[in-house]
Amino acid sequence: MAANTYSASPPKPRGYPKLASLMGHHPETAIFRRFDHLNMLNLLSLQAELTHLEVRLQDIRSEDEVSGDPLRMLHAVDFYEMRQPKREGDELQWRLMLEIRAKLQEYSTFFVLPLLQVSQLAKLHSPREDELRFLKDWLKRPMMGDSFLKGREATIWQDREPKEMASLMPQEFEADPFSTLVTTKLVDYWDRLWGNRRKKPIPVDPESGIVEYDNRLLNKISMGAGVTLASVVPSVSVLILYFVKNQIKRLGLLIVFTFIFSASLAAFTSARRIEVFSAVAGFSAVMVVFIGTND
After folding, report:
1. Which residues contact 124 (CB under 8 A, 6 or more apart)?
2. Which ranges constitute the DSSP H helices of the chain?
3. What is the largest CA-CA distance in the chain?
C-alpha cells in the first residue's frame, strides 16, 4: 500500500532568520554595532598584563644577577642553561619567559589583528539616521520584526546613535544635504501621497508592506537638480546684472548672488570647506570683472 506523500510549505521565517533575510536582500539595513569601547578595553587589558609580566621578569633577572650563584648568573648569557635548570627554583625565569611568550602571542593575535580590524571598521561609514530609524521600526512592528529581541539583545539597536553603528552597504551617492532630503523626506512624502499605491511590497517580506525605491534613480534626481542649479545661478546672475545699471544696486545684487551660490554649494555638494571658499572666490571674481566691464 502506497503512502500518501505531500510537500508541506516551509514555515515563514521569524526572528533572526527573518532579519538576516531582510539584511541580505536590502544591504542598507545591514547595520551593526562597532563596539569601539570593548575593542579598546581588550587592547588595554592585554597591554597591562604584559606590563606586569615585564616588571616581574626584570625583578627575577636582578635577583639572579646579584645572587652570587654561578648557575643563576648564567641565565643572562646562556639561554640553554636557563632552559635546563639544575635545581629547584632555578626555573623561575624560564617559566616566566614561557608565560610572556604565550601572552605575547595572544597580544599579537588580539592586538595586531584587532588593530587592523578596528582600522578597517573605522573606514565603514555610519548609517544615515533614516536607515537606522527604519531598522528600529522594523524590529518593533508586528508584521515585521514583531519585537522578537529579548533581554539584553533588545538593546543592540535601540537607543543607539548612528555614530555607534557601522553600515555594510557602500555609500552610493554623495551625502550632501539635498541628497539626504531627497532620499528621506521627499521619498516619505511621495510614498504617502502616491507611491505606496503603485509599488508592490518587497518580495522577501510581502506581508510587511515595505516598498523599495531605487537609490540610483534618487541619486540621478538629486544630481540633476544640482547640475541644473549650478548652471542657472551664474547665468541668471549675469542676466540680472546686465539690466541693472546702478553700481550700488549691482554690488548689493553681487552680495545676494554670492550668498545664493555658496548656499547652493553647501546644500547640493559634499565639497570641503576649502573647495567651497575657492569656488565662491572664483564666482565673485567673475561677477566683479563683469560689473567692471559693463558700466
Report:
1. 166, 167, 168
2. 15-25, 36-66, 70-73, 79-83, 92-107, 113-123, 129-140, 177-181, 187-190, 196-198, 215-243, 247-268, 273-293
3. 106
More reliable by pLDDT, 272 or 197: 272
User: What cell was used for 251?
Assistant: 554690488
CA distance 79 to 64: 14
Distance of CA 102 to the CA centre of its chain: 34
For 11, the grid coordinates are: 514555515
Rounded to two decimals, the pTM is 0.59
Q: What is the pLDDT of residues 69-115, one digit of tens each?
A: 776 676 666 666 666 766 665 677 778 888 888 888 878 776 666 56
Identify which of 69, 71, 67 has the alpha carbon closest to the alpha carbon of residue 94: 71
**Within 13 Å and on the Cβ side, how many CA atoms surround 251?**
3
Distance CA 75, CA 84 (A): 10
Hey, what amino acid is at 147? S
* CA–CA dist 295, 290 (Å, integer): 9
Amino acid identity, residue 144? M
Cell triple for 24:
541580505
Q: Which residue has the higher pLDDT, 170 or 138?
A: 138
Residue 52: predicted pLDDT: 93
d(CA 288, CA 64): 83
Report the pLDDT averaged over residues 199-204.
64
Lowest mean pLDDT among 51-60, 168-177, 270-279: 168-177
